[in-house]
UniProtKB/TrEMBL annotation:
Recorded GO CC terms: cytoplasm; nucleus
Pathway annotation from the record: Protein modification; protein neddylation
PROSITE patterns on file: UBIQUITIN_ACTIVAT_2
Protein name in the entry: NEDD8-activating enzyme E1 catalytic subunit
Active site: C133
Chemical reaction(s) catalysed: ATP + [NEDD8 protein] + [E1 NEDD8-activating enzyme]-L-cysteine = AMP + diphosphate + [E1 NEDD8-activating enzyme]-S-[NEDD8 protein]-yl-L-cysteine
SUPFAM superfamilies linked to this entry: Activating enzymes of the ubiquitin-like proteins
Keyword ATP-binding included in the entry's annotation: yes
Function: Catalytic subunit of the dimeric E1 enzyme, which activates NEDD8.
Pfam family, one: E2_bind
EC number(s) stated in the UniProt entry for this protein: 6.2.1.64
Amino acid sequence: MERQVIRGFCRLEDVGKPKAEVAAKRVMERVSGVNIVPHFCRIEDKDIEFYSDFNIIALGLDSIEARSYINAVACSFLEYDFDDNPREETMKPMVDGGTEGFKGHARVIVPGVTPCFECTIWLFPPQVKFPLCTLAETPRNAAHCIEYAHLIKWDEVHRGKAFDPDNGDHMKWVYDEAVKRAELFGIPGVTYSLTQGVVKNIIPAIASTNAIVSAACALETLKIASGCSKTLSNYLTYNGVEGLHSKVTQFVKDKDCLVCGPGVLIELDTTVTLQKFINMLEEHPKLLISKASITYHGKNLYMQAPPVLEEMTRSNLNLPLYDLMDKIPKDILHATGTINKDNKKSSGLKKLRVVFKGIDGVTDMDLAGGA
């Protein structure tokens, strides 16, 4: 929900309260028969089973990382038959929307049928970053001066003290230093609001754009829930920068996608222990998962955290994975951990299609393309 609408919901007594709780309360006051349970936490704080209770996931997220995480969670419920066809009863549809000024998009993701977020990650441009040499030596605009104060000057003056973008004193210090920098190089335009926008990477929100995109998302969610009409296929773009333009593009699913595809095929001997399997994930070129937690059909085979679960599942590390998977020749595992990609670390969840060699029922086709 757009923050302008939430502000319209707020009362003086709501100041300081989580917006999820305030919004839920106001909607239930206005719409009879609606039951909304707000959750004030990070999306990663909820376990996978929490998300399994939902039939549709509607996203209102503000970052690529958050979308990637929820996309991976939703796709983790997807199961394929032995012919690599997705099973309809395991699909968990997602409706996603986002805006940037006068631009916006709405999309429908049906895992296994339409492209998931990871299939089309290239749609999102890389984050704008300024070379440090430009910031330090040849600033040319107000943003350069702000980032100089934020990234360089802060560490010089406050060694060992982390910058908190939500701390008003910290932000005011960056603003003051940016003004000094701008005056030194004769650069106009440094304001406190611009300083907040640059440091926090805030993109101005336009209520009308948000209303158009959120309405499209609500409509597509209604279609999925009721079956009253065919859903969007599968990506709507809206552009109101020069006049008004909208377009629907049908992107194609990546059959080799590591998130919504059948899974990374891994061949194993029946003697491989769970510990050895976890070690293999760190070196696998398509995975590179460190500190992995492993689940099998909702059962925790090994959990890195919290400590109580780590202790409870530690004894499984020395057991053959084949035994822990009930001696089933081929099946799906899920691994959650730290993914090292392009020298960047992020939390993620991957689907693994495990096939044990030398077992009756495992065909050459099952082993084709194995790692």
